[in-house]
Amino acid sequence: MKRILVLACLCLIAVFVLASCQQERVASPKELPKESYEYPPEKPATPDEYAIKFNQMRSFYDVPGEFGHIMIGKDHGFESLSFIVTETHPGGGPPLHTHETEEAHVLLEGEATYWIENPVTHERRVFTVEEPYIARVPAGFQHTFINAGAKPFNLVAVFPDDELTYNEVGTNPLVKK
Fold it and tell me: pLDDT tens for residues 5-18?
């Protein structure tokens, strides 16, 4: 019962974050950057506040076409949640990577192609899914995705931990060279 309640809360938070994205979209230039980057928050975290603005989170860009914000839960008063919020352009997505915890992707509008590999069996699944959906990524699995649609989308990644591990293991195998 507790697990169902936690998952329901995660989904509600993700819906709230996606709705906020529509009001405070990641500012993306007409031409996408040629190199990846990561910047620290513009303003300090305020763990005693109940609303967290994007300028209080680290921002990043991954070639080719993924802008985002990283919210480390412990910095903002969460005991067991962290988030990544992206604006992913067509054909864009993160490098191939892993996390120490499971992850849920929430997408209300758009289409994504996923690449997920089991670290023990090396069974690889590649699949495309259209909105609305929640994708499940088990802990330790190598994974990535690309925006398979024609317009940018906002994706919320939810992590059940107040820390966030990110281990890059290679380039995105779904990106067309």
Answer: 344 444 444 444 44
Q: In what order do the strands lie in the sheet with 153-159?
A: 37-39, 58-62, 66-71, 82-88, 153-159, 103-107, 133-137
With 0-12 CB in 10 A as exposed, 13-18 as middle and 19+ as buried, what is 134? middle
The CA–CA distances, whole Å, from 148 to 25, 58, 82, 91, 153 equal 20, 26, 26, 6, 10
Type of residue at 31: E
Query: How would you classify residue 42: left for phi > 0, otherwise alpha for psi between -120 and 50, otherwise beta?
Result: alpha
pLDDT tens-digit map of 21-55: 443 445 555 789 999 999 999 999 999 999 999 99
Domains and CATH numbers, the chain: 2-27+36-170 (2.60.120.10)
Peptide bond before residue 40 is cis, with ω within 30 degrees of 0? no
> 114: which strand partners?
127, 145
